[in-house]
Amino acid sequence: MMSAMTPTPSRAATRFADRVKIKQSSVRTRMLDIAAKLTDVIALGRGDPDLDTPAHIVEAGRAALAKGATHYTHPLGMPELRKAICEAIKRDGGAEYFPDEIVVTAGAQESMFVAMLALVSPGDEVIIPSPGYNSYHQAVELAEGKIVTVPTYEKDGFALTADEVAKVLTPNSRILCLINPSNPTGMVIPPSEIDKLCALAIEHDLIVISDEIYAKLTYDNARVQRVAALPGMRERTITIDGFSKAYSMTGWRVGYFAAPKSFTTPMAEIHHGLAICAPAVSQHAALAALTGPQDCVEESRRLYDERRKLMCAALDRMGLSYARPNGAFYVYANVSSTGLSASDFCIRLLEEGKVMMFPGSLFGDHCDDYVRISLLQPLAKVEEAAARMEKVVKALRAARA
Ligand SMILES: Cc1ncc(COP(=O)(O)O)c(C=O)c1O
């Protein structure tokens, strides 16, 4: 029988590979520990939509299971899904692809790890916007590449600029990552800047990984320029996309990448080694998402837009600055005027206001001034969170004065 006492781990069980970087002291761990002891916390931390997967998509998954979709699929993904993905990419203003240029993965997350493992050799430099979705850093580290961050600024609306990228280019530059719209800032890179970034990529023979997972969620008439659709870009671009955000399908774990066959063939080998294939049931659900009615996407977009407007108005009242996001479902707000670093602010807000949001340092931000607010709670909860935040900000300012 197993003892109820926690056994002392053996020496072998405490020795990890050098690539494992466990940050026990991370502010995220601290916040989760604090939150575990509290009740009534409003969580605006994670990027997981509160909305349910639309009913017709769930039903397609259910029907597929009833018909025996419990086996491996083709490693690249079900042919009918890959065909639907090609059609959807084209419909959304992307490049023309053939089904063997699509690889369906276990979430877009797997796509980014496959891409780095397939393309990055030790010492290759991978350019990542700062702040930027933190898993890119982890994927580059795993591939033993060198992370090169490029700062983005509130004054530029947090758009990555070609001028800033040009400053970090070296003969070892290999990949430029674009996350558009951005997580964590919610900003869409203006199409004119995408043109300049692409010209730079062509001039310096860079591969571009274009993560367009939030591209269907834009506001204020912002338009996401699909990178691979631009002249000279299809042959050097890996487009990463998925279903988690626009169709509220995070738990299904299905996403994909699209790239020329010269990329997908070796990348598919790594995908096969990691996952064999994406979950069969989720591929059926994804097929229903792409081929079914699209008004569910518009309805989600409308709800996020309402929340975005409410939160921006609340930040205005609090006197906290931000660059008005025009994509995704995040607001990236500057809390430095409270006198605290963003990490300390998040902890104070959690302890005193019972609202959870994450500091930008978790997204590799070059400064500790910003917090990422995920708008993934019903409007009334977002309103309540904003009111609690306002109280904490006022108290901090009063204490400073
Ligand atoms: C920019 C970006 N890419 C990819 C992902 C991962 O998405 P998926 O759930 O499809 O793995 C996320 C999740 O937050 C993200 O923000």
CATH class of the largest domain: Alpha Beta
Q: The biggest beta sheet, please?
A: 7 strands, mixed
Which segments are poorly predicted (pLDDT under 50) over 5 or more consecutive residues? none
Helix content: 40-55%
Task: Please give the domain count.
Answer: 2
N- to C-terminal distance = 61 Å
At CATH level 2, the architecture of the largest domain is 3-Layer(aba) Sandwich
Number of helices: 12
Question: Might you state the CATH topology name of the largest domain?
Answer: Aspartate Aminotransferase, domain 2
Determine the CATH superfamily of the largest domain: Type I PLP-dependent aspartate aminotransferase-like (Major domain)
* Helix/sheet category: alpha/beta
Tell me the radius of gyration.
22 Å
Question: Could you give the order of the helices and strands?
Answer: HEHHEHEHEHEHEEEHHHEEHEEEH
Amount of beta strand: 5-15%
Layout of helices and strands:
Elements: H1 27-36, E1 42-43, H2 55-66, H3 79-91, E2 102-105, H4 107-119, E3 125-130, H5 135-142, E4 146-151, H6 162-168, E5 173-179, H7 191-203, E6 207-211, E7 237-242, E8 255-258, H8 261-275, H9 280-291, H10 295-318, E9 321-322, E10 330-334, H11 342-353, E11 355-356, E12 358-359, E13 370-374, H12 379-400
Parallel strand pairs: 1-11, 3-4, 3-5, 5-6, 6-7
Antiparallel strand pairs: 2-8, 7-8, 9-10, 10-13, 12-13
Helix pairs in contact: 1-11, 2-9, 3-9, 4-5, 4-8, 10-12, 11-12
This protein binds pyridoxal-5'-phosphate.
